[in-house]
Amino acid sequence: MNRMLPSLALVAATAVGATAAQDPNHGFLDLRLGYTFLDKSYEATVDDGITQDEFDNDWDEQHRAFGLVVYGFPASPAGGFMIGADVTVDYRDDDPRGTAVDLSYESYGAHAHVGYYLPIGNAFQVELLPFVGFAAAKFEHTIPGNTETSSNATLIEFGVNLNAILTLGRFQIGGQAGYLRQDSDENLKDGADNSSYDFGPGNLLFSAMIGVRI
């Protein structure tokens, strides 16, 4: 009997800790990783000094991943406030059909989040998280003969996400839907051609997330 008491105490403490980890009324700190699906379309204008050719196209590849840390302040049944920060990596590539051009785009960003969360029971919560931040972007344009021009820019990114998170013990799984606005216009000169690209100034986004509650 005496040997069982420490074991029972350990099990009880573990259960209490798991419950507290799931209960937003105690506040929480979450670390999450996610992958984002974005609209693949972009717009471009090519000016050779005589004519202008405007066209729409889609990226062959587009990938965006992020790491996010959020802290939720202790909540009432009506919800509570939260703050957070993330880092993002964005990579895109396209070989426009009917041309010998290769386009690639990559950016690395960081954003601050301030929002609101609503706990639903001890395991589920929804979050509304507006965000704003910056990204360092590089765009490369390669034509036959491996003639390459590139452009570097600092972008402003802002938007809002609606998250749905399920916390099981300390493990988390969830998703998000939102809107991302990017100030991402690139201008290049290849010989006699001036090229201007507008990379989706407004994008709907959908993400899948996994995480851990600390």
List keywords for this structure.
single chain, 214 residues, mainly beta, Porin, eight-stranded antiparallel β-barrel, four-stranded antiparallel β-sheet, 12 strands
In short:
The chain is mainly beta. 9% of the residues lie in helices and 70% in strands. Strand 6 (102-120) and strand 7 (124-143) form a beta hairpin.
Strand content: over 45%
Report the radius of gyration as a whole number of Å.
Answer: 23 Å
Q: Mean of the pLDDT scores?
A: 81
Major sheet attributes: 8 strands, antiparallel, barrel
Secondary structure tally: strands: 12
- Summing up helix and strand content along with how strands pair, one would put the structural category as mainly beta
Describe, in plain words, how this protein is organized in 3D.
It is a single chain. The chain contains 1 helix and 12 strands. With 214 residues, the protein is mainly beta. It has a single domain (4-213), classed as Porin, CATH 2.40.160. It has an 8-stranded antiparallel beta barrel with strand order 1-4-5-6-7-8-9-12. Strands 3-2-11-10 form a 4-stranded antiparallel beta sheet, with no helix packed on it. The longest helix has 19 residues, at 4-22. The two termini are 34 Å apart.
